[in-house]
Please model this.
Amino acid sequence: MSTLEYTVVDAPESGQYEARTPAGEVVGYSAYRRDGDTIVFPHTVVPPEHGGQGIASALAKTSLDDARAAGLTVVPACSFYATYIDRHPEYADLVR
Model:
């Protein structure tokens, strides 16, 4: 299997971070909701055909780095985010 090329971008118009291929295909996303100084991540979706390529981790890393830069508190309502933060304690200080 070849490595899928993608870039993670914030798509505020749809309330999600998206992993997009150079052709613009969305191959995974993490939904979010902003509430003042808090950002909630309720779910992350990567279709099975794109699983195992680090897409969900890239979505989490980019969105958590952005949350830190913006001074936001994170609510990891999505189980993937909760597990990701447990495995990457450098993000633990963001969690409410």
